[in-house]
């Protein structure tokens, strides 16, 4: 049995042939596939089934994948893998902004789809296990008169007010806190936050760091905490 076994996967795609192929692919791994033929049906299925993983096409009638992703992300942190076709770099950046976790280009092989699904669910499982054991990336916390981060409770506050962070955003913040003051390369961040399979996905780091700045910094354009080391990576700097 793999990490996919007995998990529910919601496939939202208006291509019935592709949906059928994906459903067979996941069923062979022991998953429970749920099919939705468009974005509106996908949102209904999401609310009814509460899946463990979502495979989401971008180009669909009525409600496209971008809007479906946005609506789902406003309700839950359920991992979302988006299916892209042309202009993949542009799609990836936009999808990350909407809260997607990963991307697979069409046409895809079943092996690639399964590998990405395993990697995505493995990150979720590792984060949940760390949180349950009080080991959120080393259980490092931070506190000053503006920003408070409690890694044991997986919570962050700005001026005493709680800030909602996605699971990936919190993993990134916790890893940077654990290594406060050190320059972390893009590859180090990708390996530790996303996994070795994503070593070439530098856009992920840029977009999620931008998310954190908008949520945590007083002035995201002149960040006080999350510093850019141009051409290398990022560094967390606490207030003195």
What layout of secondary structure does this protein have?
Layout lengths: L7 E5 L3 H13 L3 E5 L2 H11 L3 E5 L7 H11 L4 E5 L3 H11 L3 E4 L4 H23 L9 E2 L3 E4 L4 E4 L2 E3 L3 H12 L5 E2 H9 L7 H15 L9 E4 L3 E4 L4
Helix pairs in contact: 2-3, 4-8, 6-7, 6-8
Which keywords apply here?
single chain; 240 residues; alpha/beta; Rossmann fold; 2 domains; 4-stranded antiparallel beta sheet; elongated
Please give the alpha-carbon distance between the first and last residues.
Answer: 50 Å
Strand content: 15-25%
Radius of gyration: 18 Å
What's the shape?
elongated
The H/E string reads EHEHEHEHEHEEEEHEHHEE
* Fourth-level CATH superfamily of the largest domain: Response regulator
Stretches with pLDDT under 50, minimum 5 residues: none
How many structural domains in the coordinates? 2
The averaged pLDDT comes out at 88
Strand order of the largest sheet: 2-1-3-4-5
**Biggest sheet, open or closed, and with what strands and sense?**
5 strands, parallel
Structural class: alpha/beta
| CATH class category name of the largest domain | Alpha Beta
Fraction of residues in H or I helices: 40-55%
CATH architecture assignment of the largest domain: 3-Layer(aba) Sandwich
How many helical elements? Answer: 8
Oligomeric state of the chains in view: single chain
Number of DSSP E strands: 12
| CATH fold node name of the largest domain | Rossmann fold
């Amino acid at each position: 049995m793999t990490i996919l076994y007995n998990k529910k996967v919601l496939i939202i795609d208006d291509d019935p042939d592709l949906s059928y192929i994906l459903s067979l692919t996941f069923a062979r791994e022991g998953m429970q596939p749920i099919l939705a033929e468009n974005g509106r049906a996908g949102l209904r299925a999401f609310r009814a089934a509460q899946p463990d993983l979502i495979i989401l096409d971008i180009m669909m009638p009525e409600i496209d994948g971008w809007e479906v992703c946005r609506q789902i992300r406003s309700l839950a942190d359920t991992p979302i893998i988006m299916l892209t076709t042309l202009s993949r770099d542009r799609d990836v950046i936009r999808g990350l902004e909407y809260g997607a976790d990963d991307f697979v280009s069409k046409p895809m092989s079943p092996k690639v789809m399964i590998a990405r699904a395993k990697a995505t669910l493995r990150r979720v499982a590792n984060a949940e296990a760390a949180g349950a054991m009080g080991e959120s990336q080393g259980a490092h916390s931070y506190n000053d008169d503006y920003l408070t981060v409690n890694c044991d409770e997986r919570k962050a506050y700005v001026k005493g007010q709680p800030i909602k962070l996605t699971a990936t955003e919190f993993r990134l913040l916790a890893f940077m806190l654990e290594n406060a003051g050190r320059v972390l390369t893009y590859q180090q961040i990708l390996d530790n936050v996303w996994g070795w399979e994503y070593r070439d996905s530098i856009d992920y780091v840029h977009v999620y760091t931008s998310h954190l700045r908008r949520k945590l910094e007083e002035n995201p354009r002149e960040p006080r905490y999350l510093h850019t080391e141009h051409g290398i990576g990022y560094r967390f700097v606490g207030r003195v």
